[in-house]
Model the fold of this input.
Amino acid sequence: MNETLRRALRIPLNLALLLLATLTLLFFLVRLAGDPALILSGESSDPAVLADIRRHLGLDQPLYHQYLIFLWQAIQLDLGASWVSGQDALSLALERLAPTLTLAAAAIAVHLSLSIPLGAFLGATRSSTGTLGRVARSLDGAILLAQGIPGYVVALMLIQWFAVEWQIFPSTGNDGATSLVLPALTITAFLAPKLIRVLAVNVQDALQDDYTMMARAQGAGETTVVFRHALPNALLGATALIGTQIANLVNGIIITETIFGWPGMGRLLLDSVLLLDFPVVQAVVLVTTILVFMANQLADYAIRRVDPRIRHA
Amino acid sequence: MLRLERLGTRHGIVIAFWGYRLSRSVVQVRGIFMASWVGLLLLTSCDSNSIETQRGASVDENIIRIASRRLPPGFANPAAHTGQPAVDIWPAFFDALTYINADGDVIPWLATGWTQLTDTRWRFELRNNVRFSNGEPFDADAVALAVNEILLGYGARDLVRTSLLPTVSSAEIIDSHTIDIVTAEPDPLLPKRLSQFYPLPPRYFAEVGPKTFARKPIGTGPFIVERWEAGRVLMRANRQSWRPPAAAGLDFIEIPEPIARRQAIESGQVQLAMYLAPEDITDLKQKDIEIRQAAEPRLRMLVFVVREGSPLASREVRLAMNHAIDKDSIVKYLLSGAGVVATQMGVRGSEGFDDTRQAIPYDPQKARALLLKAGYPKGIDLEMDLLVVTNTDRAVFEAILADLRDVGVRVKVNTMEFERWRAKLLTGDWQHDLFSFTVALDPLLDITKAWQYLTCERPNTPFCQPEISALIDQRARTFDLGERDRLLQRAHDQMMVDPPVVLVHEMEQITGYRDLENLQVDNLMIRWDQIRKRTRSAYE
Amino acid sequence: MKKKLFRISLLIMLVLMAVSIASPDLLEAWANERDLAKRLLPPLSSGHLLGTDGLGRDVAWRLVVGAKHTVGIAGLATLISAGIGIGLGLLAALASSWLRQVLDRIVDLTIAFPSLVLAVTLVAVLGRSSFTLALALGLFSWPVFARVTTAQTRGIVSLPYVQTARYLGVSEWRIAFSHVIPVIAPTIGVLTALQFATLLISTAGLSFLGLGPGLGVPEWGSMLAEARAELNRAPWLLIGPGVAIAWTVLVMNYLAESLASRLRVSNPHD
Done:
């Protein structure tokens, strides 16, 4: 069989395995958490009511039986009803998908738009003399420091200045394009320092390599050398990192959505976990896992397309 | 505030274009770049249907934006939630049979009058000429449906049973505007309880079923729900209502964190913010945000779980713990004075509240002496189940724990989230020695709400004190006001010398608002029909 | 200059850690000393270098004692993830190809799990404590150790002298211990330092969200959460824990980088 075809077929197989593992893990985690009947019974602790709820949920069946039913329902996209609101868990999760994706897209866009030029600039001018070099080096120091500062700290500072003091951007909610700015900047703060530093190192290395010297010898201007020759190669070395960062966006999104009150899946997850509303937790984890998997696959594919060493291997 | 809300799809296109130009020299990542900018465009433009209309809606000058702590998680299902903050929103579009006003009196609302026919049967006269917002008439059918089907019918499984009407056994229609409500036992508080009971439109409810009703509710109240999404409810004025509102609409935004709520009102994003933290009062006033403080019928306490052989079995130990805590400092410094020290298991304004009663005084020396007397010279070690929700909670409990530690009571804390704590409360399955309990005595303002978890009649009560329990349970069945008061005072006197709990403080509800007028708070419920945006005066 | 700065910081850090671990009771008592009348004092007020927090406790002492908790949890998480990762990595490299495939698949699956998501769920299920947090973090961050270990080990295992040892019947365990581990130790060491830095930020992050050890325990993440509540009135509360985290991370990164160059280790991420 053709190599590409084989690789393509492995994807759904991997996804299926991943989902199976996730569902199993969730099934046991939820059983560990305690008795859902109590949560559903509300204010009544009448044992008859509790028993009735357990029967309704199928909790009186043996464990393996529950597991199989659980899997069977999951395949049919029935992840149960929220224990808090009674609404379909999967619908509740999907309702929040669009805001999270919007935030993710904005964050990636801002992150790359900021990090790539900055990384190139730093790599090119870090070792220069004169004002440019000094500016570059102090920027370098600032970014080094920024790498240690957790994103959530940055978020708090951003809110305090831009939302409360100067009232330029809203501090919470999803009201249109302006609401995106601070959350996107926060996630960028999580990711940018690392990428900038890696790119800077790569660009610096590339600028000392043979082919850039060739380009210079051929009369290319410095900017062209940096952006046309050094940067693409620098990016090659960083594509793995970019891929990992995009796939790990989830973590930053949960924290950011909580701080900014962004009505996305991250916040839904945290809220549901605290409410012990496990059907919704299951739904969100499942959707997130699928998304992260797809992002990983895309990243892998991009790396393979882009890196001539792998492409022609 | 910069008018950046005008940013729309056109601007998005421009930004995407320049982003693309920039990415041209950046060959490899172009794919991701383009994907993310294009994706961003698509998402904001399909999202913008809701964003545009919503933005349009609330940019409408007369719609008031409200930062709420929590919208009912079960959507518009009035049987599912019985306490604040979930119930705050009901009066905006639902009405109850009775209403508790600012003085704590029960006044007619959807019911114009009532008489008690027997110990267990009450007759209610219903208001004429009231319609639900879909045109259905409000009559005895609606009340009967709400009682018989929702509360007593499928409530147990699909919806959550409310504890507010545990005594009701049925409703019987007498004629189109008269209905009898029958209780299982004599219940002197029935009219008060019915202030939390909302009749629903029978035909619409039968047509759409509970789940759809919860998403698109219909009531008799001042507003009609236009859209109910996760974390946001938009509603517009119902001019046909029997009590039409002053505002054109309300936009409730759920912001669970007090800090974020405060930031929302500071930045002008909302005009009303509910449940703010007491420590923020001074700052907010400086920013020209008005503050309304209302005494909440909520008591913070620590409940003793007394078992065989536990040090808490000794009366001296429990008294010592009460003497150990500096409640005045807590109220003064940590609550910025928003609240008072609790003196009895009841709050100001509740039935039988004795304002001459004093709290158990702060006396760490006496506390240590009592522990010594009880036979614990080296102090004791306890474990506590703790529910911490806000930053203020955290600060108060840290202070309490530190005070206890100072007299030799070392408490190990087991923090849990609300649902787990509530499950324990309901089953009485406490494995440790203490648990935190912030009991809300509303809307009845009565000790019975707290006592139902502590009474000896419950199988799993944390601590059974037969004498005190008998007094309070007897009072619950007595109709004579004088007798009720006598019984209650005797119970409180006993609790002073043999405490079942550590009482800490009463709480206050803090609401911040700007550019609004006529904010009326009755018994902690905001009169949504009265509030309106401040009209600009000529010389502003 | 930079080198000296970092060397000094590392020294200070180690001293503080030692102090905080060595005499726990006394220091915890100092860190908990409170005076409600003196809450939220700014830095450099009488006797309080960095000011006081919401309960009148000295911020500087709480940072020092908090180091034990935050660094402790992050350290435990690193140990757990290194333990699992290295163990499985070695197994994958030295075992049969079938086992290697399975382990490879497990690594892929674990990477695909959104780790914070499941860590949050785990903490909610098991209850909040220092150990649960460390466990949750450790359980989801081992793949990078496994991958690096496997890659490096396979490199070594293909060398002639190791092949010879195999033919001679030396058991896999001995090969692992005498040949592989000494050689990969530098790389793993550097990786551990880097991972520790990452896990420190995650620890403080989860604790900030409220999933950490809980009430009264001085921990940098929960100190940040308190700082957030008081940001208007007492912005300095944010600086203490923020700088503490940032500085520890930087020192760890520097340590990793200098170890790497000293031991001539190439970037473990390659």
